Structures are given as C-alpha cells and as structure tokens.
C-alpha cells in the first residue's frame, strides 16, 4: 500500500460501518494503483465499527476477487478525511448527502461510486483516452449535474445478509471500480 505524501492524490471510499463495502473498494483501488506512489487509497465509515477487521463474508468476497483483507480495519470518517481527500466515493446517495451536509468543504469532491464511474466513462468517451484521477475529478465536478444520481444506483449494504447478497455487492463494487480504474491513467 502506498503511504500518503503531500503530493499524493488521496482517494477515499466510504460506507456505513467500514467493514464490508468501502474496504472492499479500497482494496480493489489499492491493487490497481499500487505501482503509482502518487495515489493513496483508504476507506472510512460514517458509523464505523472502529478497529474491527473486514466482515468475514465481505472478506471472503474480496479474496474471491483477488484481494487481501488482512490489513483492513474500520476507521471513523472525521474532519481530517474531509480535508485531506481529493476524491471521496460513497456507496450510497444518502452517504454522499450526509458528508456534503456535515462536511460542506468536501461537497465538490464527494460522489457516489456509481455516479463517479458513470462520469469517468463519459470523460474517456469524450476525450478518447484515459485521464489522470485529478482530470477525472475536474471533469466530474464540471459535469456532475448532467448525470442522474438516485438511490437506485446505490451499492447494497450486505451486512448481516446471506452470501449471495455479499457476492452481488462485491461484483457491483468491482464493476464500478473497474470502470474508474480503466478511465484513469495512473492504474497499472
């Protein structure tokens, strides 16, 4: 995992407890950007189960997708996250709304995972090539109003749900993360 430096682009994934969805997304992005020392990826929860490891079922899905859950522990979203993150990706519209309400300085950098993936694909289609994450963010800020955002595109919370729900959630996160990864020039 890359360590954050002052010159890093900090991508933060956010969910509720930070034990299922956001750490899975964090691990997928970390894997894609591990060769780039200028991209730092982390995750946090709005109601985090601080210090807890990944949920066992979610961890199983991460392993299925080729990731490693061993170093992922829940962390509470705090003001420092809002200040230091260049891009905040939430798993639901309600989470995006909570962050923009409670941390207004982060509003222009906060998107749902589905919203940003859709905008990233549009950016690549328009430019004809991948863009740096900062370029995708600039495009997203400029075009965010032209992309419909509603809760129907939320990543379902699989906590305390059966394995098939965890699998569907992991696949949904993986698909959206891959759209962003393929759109960004920093990915390996």
Automatic annotation (TrEMBL):
Belongs to the low molecular weight phosphotyrosine protein phosphatase family. Residues 9-183 form the Phosphotyrosine protein phosphatase I domain. It holds the Pfam family LMWPc. SUPFAM superfamilies: Phosphotyrosine protein phosphatases I. Keywords: Hydrolase, Protein phosphatase. The active site is at 15 (nucleophile), 21. One of its GO terms (molecular function) is protein tyrosine phosphatase activity. This is Phosphotyrosine protein phosphatase I domain-containing protein.
